[in-house]
Amino acid sequence: MLVAGNWKSNKSFNEAKEFANAFAAMPAAPAGVEVMIAPPAPYLAAMGEAQLPFRLGAQNVSATGPGAFTGEFTAEMLAGSGVQDVIVGHSERRDGFGDDDKVVAEKVSRVLDAGLRVIFCCGESLQDRQTDVHFDKVLRQLESAVLHLPAEAMDRVVVAYEPIWAIGTGLTASEDQAQEMHAAIRGWLREAFDEATAKSIPLLYGGSCKPANADQLFACEDVDGGLIGGAALDPDSFRALVEAAGRVSEARQQAEAS
Ligand code: PGA
After folding, report:
1. Per residue in 100-140, pLDDT tens?
2. Most CB contacts within 10 A, which of 5, 25, 148, 224?
3. How far apart are CA 175 and CA 113, in angstroms?
4. What is the pLDDT of residues 94-105, one digit of tens each?
5. For atom 7 of ligand 1, which residue has the closest CA?
6. Helix, strand or coil for residue 56?
7. Tally of structural domains, the chain
8. Long-range contacts of 52-55 (CB under 8 A, 24+ apart)
9. What is the Cα–Cα distance from 23 to 234, expressed in whole angstroms?
10. How far is ligand 1, taken at its centre, from the CA of residue 171, in Å?
11. CB-ligand 1 contact for 66 (6 Å cutoff)
């Protein structure tokens, strides 16, 4: 299970340090649970130097290499700053900052080439769902950014399904809606790669996931954790999500052993 927090453009540098200290004072994550936090980019290098009890993620990366690209930062720069994971294809970037499928595919490749892990986001709008094209939409996003990747890079790919209508809205996909899309993504990965690859890729759910609904969402067969926005801003609520993932991880280990 992976619980990944995306702070978006929130928190002062001091607030980020306070969170890190509060989280570090809590017990270690339960067995089988990985934790990641993606703070705003200006804090990455300092957080990368601190001994933090979570993986460090970036919320964005340049689609270019080094050179005369004012304001951009490359995947290699992130790697050199202690970043391990990079979120690519978030709907807020697709919709507001020109990250179309081509740019997203380029960013995914650059992240993997730099040796980092990518958290690739996909998801449909409310209109897509209402017009019954949500599966097509999500699978097409996967096709354009993931299909061309070499099989050996797939162990550094995480897929986050984030229905746009559920992000920051308080609306959450039902367990059935989450599970059926995750199963479709898993099926697509099986076709595009193979059974072992499809099984090993963590599929995260994102969209108003919070302590009150995490147990049910994480318990879905094809949900392997969450990409968390609002509920990742407070150490206690984020910790509660980590605990929820721990309960599911333990239950899955017991089921496998029996
Ligand atoms: P939310 O954001 O949890 O605040 O809905 C999720 C995301 O955008 O990753």
Report:
1. 999 999 999 999 999 999 999 999 999 999 999 999 999 99
2. 5
3. 35
4. 999 999 999 999
5. 229
6. strand
7. 1
8. 52/20, 52/23, 52/24, 53/23, 53/24, 53/28, 53/29, 54/23, 54/29, 55/84, 55/85
9. 9
10. 11
11. no
Which amino acid type is present at position 174?
A: S
Helices (H), 54-174: 75-80, 91-96, 101-113, 126-130, 134-146
Q: Is the CB of 89 under 6 A from ligand 1?
A: no
192-221 confidence digits (pLDDT tens): 999 999 999 999 999 999 999 999 999 999
Q: Which residue minimizes the CA distance to atom 1 of ligand 1?
A: 229
Residue 55: C-alpha distances to residues 73, 145, 161, 203 (Å): 19, 23, 20, 17
* pTM (whole model) above 0.85: yes
Judge contact between 112 and 153, C-beta under 8 A. yes
Range of the domain at 182: 2-257
Listed residue (48, 49, 54) closest to 26, CA to CA: 54
Which CATH number belongs to the domain containing residue 72 in this structure? 3.20.20.70
Terminal-to-terminal C-alpha distance of the chain: 20
207 lines ligand 1 (CB under 6 A): yes
